[in-house]
Amino acid sequence: MELNFDKLEHLNYFSKLSYKDLIIFLIPIILFSAYLYVFYPGILRYDSFGQFHQIVAHEYYNWHPFFHTFIEKVLLKIYPSPVTVCIFQILTFSTIWAVICNYYRRDIENNKVFIIQVVLTVIIALIPINAIFSIMLVKDVLFSYWLLFLCFLVAVMVDKEDIGYEFIFLIALTMGCLSQIRPNGIYIIVVTLIFLGYYLFKRNLTKKFLSILALTFVIILLILSLNVVFDVQDNQKSAVLAKVSHMLADYELNLDLDEHDREKIHELVSEKDIKEKYRATFSDPICFASNKSVWDNYSRDYIEMAVKYSIKNPIHFLEYLFNSSPIVWDITRDSSWIGYQYNTDMENDKYKFYSNHKEINITEFEDISYKNNGTDMFVGLNNFVNGFKDNIILDTLFDSPALYMYLSLLLLAVMFFITRSKDILLIYLPNLLNILVIFVSTPIQDNRYLYPNLLVCYFLIIMLIYVLAKKYSSESAE
Predict the structure, then answer these.
(1) What's the pLDDT at 64?
(2) How far apart are CA 45 and CA 47, in angstroms?
(3) CA-CA 20 to 30 A from 211: which of 103, 193, 198, 281?
C-alpha cells in the first residue's frame, strides 16, 4: 500500500510513502527508544533542571531562550515527565531523516540505494552520541535537528525550478523556529536570508523570496510574543561580555598593555580573578567574575579596547581565537579541553543545580533519577557509551565535529565536480554559519554546540549516494 501526495502540488517531490519509508522511520525510533528505556526518564542536564523549575513555578526568564522552555511546557502538559520531551525529539529526528531518505530515493528504481540508506541509518542510530543526544534535554538537540532540516530544504530549493507556497511556509517555519531556539540562531537566519535572497533574485524568484522573508518575520514575532504573554524576565547572559572579558583577560596575561588599559581591565575583572580563573577553553569563570555594573557603564570602552589590541596584535588575536575554540578545527579532543562530548551523570548535574539554587522550594523534580540506575543493563550501557567517548580513536571517528566538518566539505567538493553546479555549495551555508558563530563565541568545548556537523555530514552522504546513482543510471542509459 502506498500513500500518494500528488494533490499537494508543490510537495510532490515527497511523492510516495511506502514500506521503505516506514523502515527508515522506525530504525532510529527503535534504537533510540532502547536507550530511553535504559536511561528512563531521559538525561537531564544542569540547564534542564532550571527550565523545568521555571515551568513548575510559572516564573520564566530568558537565561536560555524561552521558546525552548515553552516547547517543554507544552509537551509536559501531554504527560508530566521528561520522557515526553525525549519522545518528541526522537520523533523529530526520525521524521526528518525519513523525509531526507525519501527525497533521495525518488525516480531511482535500483533497490541498492534503499539498502545503503538502511545500512547507513542503522549505523547512525547505533553511534552512541546520536542516541544519547536524542534523549538529552538541552535546546541544542532540537536546534541541531532543525538546522539539518534547513540544510535539506535549501538542497530542495537548489534542486527545483520553482518553489510552491507550501514549501515557502515550511522553510519559513523552520527558519523562524531556529532563530529563537538558541541565542545564536537569529544571526544564522539573518545571514542565510541574505544569501537566499541573492540566490532567488538571480533565479527570478524575488516574489517567492519576499514571501519567505515576510512569513519568517511574522513567525519570529509570534514566537517573541510568547515572552510577553508569559512575562519572561530578562536575565540573559551577555555573549558580548563573555567574549570581551575573556579576550581581555587573555590579553592582560599575554600582551604588553598600556598601564592605564591594564588598570581598566582590572576594574572589570580583578587581577586575582584573571590569574586564578582564566581558562583558554572555558570563558564562563571570567564572565561570572566580571563586575556587571562596570560593564553596563563602560561596555563600549572595553569593546573598543579589545578591538584595538586585536588589530595591534593580529597574530595573537588569531592564536586566541583558535586556542579558545579548538573544538571547531581540531579533529582530536585534547585532555586540556574543558567540556564534554556528552554527559550521562544526571545526579551530579542535579546536585550542582540545587546546591547553587538553595532558594528554590519546588520539589517536583528533585527526586528525578534514572529508574534503572544500578541495574545490570544500566551499568552496562552507561559504561559502554562513556567508554566509547573516552576512547580517543572511537571518539575521533564518531564524535569529532571538526572531522565531520572536513568530511562535509570533501563531500561537497566531490558533488560539485560531478554536477558542476556552484549552487550545491549553498546547502552547507546554514551549518557553516553556525560553525563560524561558535568559533567566535563558544564558552566551553561541548560537542552539543556543533552537533549539526555530524547530522549534516550524514545528510550529505545520502545526497552523494543519490548523485552517484543518478550519474550511473544516466551513463547506463546511454
Answers:
(1) 83
(2) 5
(3) 103
Cell numbers given for 134 = 536524542
Distance between CA 66 and CA 83 in Å, rounded?
A: 20
More confident residue, 406 or 348: 406
Could you give the CA distance from residue 460 to residue 212 in angstroms, rounded to a whole number? 25
Q: Tell me what the pLDDT averaged over the chain comes to.
A: 91
Q: Check residue 8 and give its pLDDT.
A: 41
- The reported pLDDT for the residue numbered 110 is 77
- For the chain, what percent of residues have pLDDT higher than 70? 93
As given in the structure block, the three cell numbers for residue 172 are 519559513
The grid cell for 262 is 591594564
Closest CA to 226 of 175, 176, 174, 170: 176
Contacts of 137 (CB under 8 A, 6+ apart): 42, 43, 44, 45, 48, 51, 72, 82, 85, 86
C-alpha neighbours within 13 Å on the C-beta side of residue 112 = 8
Tell me if residue 53 falls in helix, strand or coil. helix
Copy the grid coordinates of residue 369.
533519577
Tell the residue number behind the cell numbers 581565537, with chain if given: 321
134 closest CA partner among 77, 95, 76, 78: 95
**358: Cβ–Cβ under 8 A, 6 or more apart, which residues?**
none
Q: What is the CA radius of gyration of the chain?
A: 24
Q: What would the grid cell of residue 176 be?
A: 523562524
Task: Name residue 51's amino acid.
Answer: Q
Which residue in the block uniquely carries the three cell numbers 566551553? Answer: 444
What is the percent of the chain with per-residue pLDDT over 90, rounded to a whole number? Answer: 79
**Is the predicted pLDDT of residue 42 greater than 70, yes or no?**
yes
Q: What is the pLDDT of residue 129?
A: 98
271 CB-contact burial (10 Å; exposed 0-12 / middle 13-18 / buried 19+): middle
pLDDT of residue 354: 78
pLDDT of residue 457: 98
Within 10 angstroms of residue 143's Cβ, the number of other Cβ atoms is 24
DSSP structural state of residue 140: H
Q: Which three cell numbers stand for residue 293?
A: 555594573
Residue 409, Cβ density class (10 Å: 0-12 exposed, 13-18 middle, ≥19 buried): middle
Please report where in the chains the cell 541544542 appears, as a residue: 140
Q: Whose CA is closest to 62, among 175, 148, 183, 202?
A: 183
Cα separations in angstroms, 293 against 143, 237, 289, 290, 296? 33, 14, 12, 9, 5
Q: Does 236 have pLDDT greater than 80?
A: no
